Amino acid sequence: MPTYNEIAAHFHSQPHLQVKVGKIDGDAERALATRFNVHSYPSFYVIDGYSVYSFEDRARSKHNLIQYVQKKGYKTDYGDGLNTAPLPFYASPLGPVGLIQGTLISTGYGLADIFVWLQDSFHLSPIFAGMILFGSAFVGCFIMIVILAIAMTPKEKQD
């Protein structure tokens, strides 16, 4: 962690480089960690436009990470076996699959939090809390279908 803080301080003190360094707590941001396919900590990614590069070098020194970003080492193939190609668009966290995956995971965690909130706040049994959650989702979907049906119904032309 101290190395990453030093890297952030280095890039943030040089705004002309236009590099922003951020960190997330993978335990708190589970959907984001899943979208980026984080399996171990710390993980280091470079996002350049819509391309995402994963730093795979085992030597995660301050110097190596700064050079990787500053010299655009992620776009260079040194022949050393490092993964310098961007993640494929379909598998990229910024691609359509990654965005859908993140939305579904966030929705699932949100529903699980609501389930726990129902149990804790109203002292409901898990079965009853689940029934309320399912019933609410059913009614919500029914209302959305009715609204879409009304909106999509062709209107008769008035002369």
Describe it for me?
With 159 residues, the protein is mostly helical. The protein has two domains: 2-71, Glutaredoxin, CATH 3.40.30.10; 99-152, no CATH class. The protein is built from five helices and two strands; from the N terminus they run H-H-E-E-H-H-H. It has helices spanning 2-12, 30-35, 62-70, 96-122, 126-152; strands at residues 45-48, 51-54. It has a two-stranded antiparallel ribbon with strand order 1-2. Helix 4 packs across helix 5 (126-152). It is extended. Residues 2-70 form the Thioredoxin domain.
Structural Rg: 23 Å
How is the main sheet built?
2 strands, antiparallel
Return the CATH topology of the largest domain. Answer: Glutaredoxin
Helix content: 40-55%
- Number of beta-strand segments: 2
How are the strands of the largest sheet arranged? 1-2
- Global shape: extended
Please count the helical segments.
5
Please give the domain count. 2
Going by CATH, the architecture of the largest domain would be 3-Layer(aba) Sandwich
Beta-strand residue fraction = 5-15%
CATH class of the largest domain: Alpha Beta
> Mean pLDDT, rounded to whole units?
86
Could you state the order of secondary-structure elements as H and E? HHEEHHH
How many angstroms separate the termini? 72 Å
> Structural class of the secondary structure composition?
mainly alpha
CATH homologous superfamily name of the largest domain?
Glutaredoxin
Q: What's the helix and strand layout?
A:
Elements: H1 2-12, H2 30-35, E1 45-48, E2 51-54, H3 62-70, H4 96-122, H5 126-152
Antiparallel strand pairs: 1-2
